[in-house]
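User: Before I run my own analysis I want an independent prediction to cross-check against. Here's the chain; please return only the structure tokens and, at the end, one sentence I can use as a sanity check.
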Amino acid sequence: MIRVLVADDSATLRSALSALLAEDPQISVVGEARDGVEAVSMARALRPDVITMDVNMPRLDGLGATAAIMADSPARVLVISSVSEHREQELSFKAMAAGALELIAKPASGDMRAWGRKLAESIRLMAEVPVVRRHRFAARPLPASLAHAGAVDVIGMVASTGGPPALAQVLGDLPGDLCAPLLFAQHIAEGFTAGLVRWFSGCCKLKVRIARTGDAPRPGTVYLPPDGCDLEIDEEGLLRAPRAPGPHYPSGNRLLASLAHVHGARAAGFVLTGMGDDGAQGLLALRNAGGATFAQDESTSVVYGMPQAALACGAARSQLALEQVAPAILSLCRKGTSK
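Assistant: Structure tokens:
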């Protein structure tokens, strides 16, 4: 059984969550917390496998509760947030930086049972993720395999679970005058892209934008696709943001494959922390086209699934610790070295 603690200041939503989760035979709700203070205390006493965390609560909000839980009695935290409230989204992304694994939209009017099934699926998936504390590691030298024949013109980055804080760290380590654009495929629930853009903007000196089809990607700018869309480069080197056909979006494979097709050896690709194997085949296409390709290492990944898949199929030239990604980007942009 997966032991779940529900934290929400709304008695109605707590009861609804508990009833919906009780329908899943693999899940047992072991406690209900009315605010962040109770959530911290019950996490310590009950040691749940997963905590569903509201962000806007009295006495102690979801951000403070997540930070305290991860420091004292670490658990897998799933943040449940409104997509319409800017403050809730801001707190939610900060909670992810403090150690929360996933961000789920609060139910709108509609089929609550379908929403409950989706939440239960997320809980089952997150229960498989090792519980980790956030660490910032000391700088390490770049590997010799970073050498690449020529500077790159564009960088694609793919991430899923654990990705927002990882990408925020990379962005915070880059200068505002970076001489290449960054294109991101970060898996995220629909409704949260604008909040992610605002959060990234506050973490770095680069410009962070939602991509628009037909725009030319500019140096020193980070592009994310609109909600529910993929992000690609077309034959003319312009941005495309088509509606995503699959359940998991944006597609890292589609982004990196487009860079391989259009830019080839003048592109770099990074597959960071995440569950599953998205990005592996796109990164392989980029490597076969002569591009610079890397995967995040296991020690700094929240979930090693996507980087491991990229390594297993031969797509990644080598692994990089998270703190090495920004220096690698700078090295690839500034100058080329012989293979």
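Sanity check: The first helix runs from residue 11 to 22.
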